[in-house]
Amino acid sequence: MTYSIGFKSRMVKRLTGPEKVSASALSKEVGVSQPTLSRWVQEAHTLPVMSASNKQPAGSPKSPRQWTPQQKLEVVVEASSVPEAEMGEFLRGKGIHMVQLEEWRQLSMDAAKEALSKAKKPKKKLTQEGKRIKDLEKELLRKDRALAEVTALLALKKKVQDLWGDEDDDTAT
Fold it and tell me: What is the per-residue pLDDT across 116-173, written as a single tens digit (0 to 9) for each?
C-alpha cells in the first residue's frame, strides 16, 4: 500500500516527538506494520517535511565529526545554558553524545587556558646579570671560533712540514 508523505511524516513525528509512542503500539493503532514504521523512522531524513525541520543549517555537515571547530564551540556554549533535565533531548536534537560534548568542552577549556596564559606573560626585561651573561656567551663563542681557526692552521702547518720537510735542515744549499 502507498502512503502519502504527510502521513509518513506524522507517523515519524509520533514515533520520535516529545510524546513518542512505540512502533508496535502505533502499528496497532493505525494499521501499518511495525517494520514499515521503523523503516520510515530510519528514512526520515529523505522526507521533505522532515528535512525542513532539521535543526542544522542546509550547508552544514550532517556528522558531528565533520563540524568545524566554530560549530562545536557554539554547541558547547549553547549546552551550558541547557538545564540538566533537558540535556538528553538537546543532545539528541543535535545528533551528538554526551562524551563528544565533554570532549569538546575540555578542548575549549584547554585552548582558552593556553590563549590566556600567552596573553599574561609579558616579555622579561634583561637584568644586569642577564646582559652580562649574554655578553660573556658572545665572547666565549668568538674565542671558540678563534681557537678552532688556530687549531686548523697548526694542523695544516704540520702537514706542510711532513710533505716538504723542515726548512731548518743542516743540508747545504
Answer: 887 766 666 668 888 999 999 999 999 999 999 999 999 999 999 988 886 665 666 5
Instruction: Give the C-alpha separation, 150 to 156, whole Å.
Output: 10
**Residue burial 127-136, b: 16+ Cβ < 10 Å; e: rest:** eeeeeeeeee
The count of residues in the chain is: 173
Give CA–CA dist 85/93, Å, rounded. Answer: 14
0.85 surpassed by pTM: no
How far is residue 167's CA from residue 152's CA, in Å, rounded to a whole number?
21
**Cell of residue 96, nine digits:** 551528538
The half-sphere exposure of 92 on its side-chain side, counting CA atoms within 13 A, is 7
Measured CA distances, 134 to 92, 103, 137, 143 (Å): 60, 45, 5, 14
- For residue 27 the three cell numbers come to 502499528
Q: Where are the domains of the chain?
A: 1-54, 56-121, 128-163
- List Cα–Cα distances, 76 to 113, 127, 152, 167, in angstroms: 16, 45, 65, 86
CA angle 64-70-74, nearest 5°?
Answer: 80
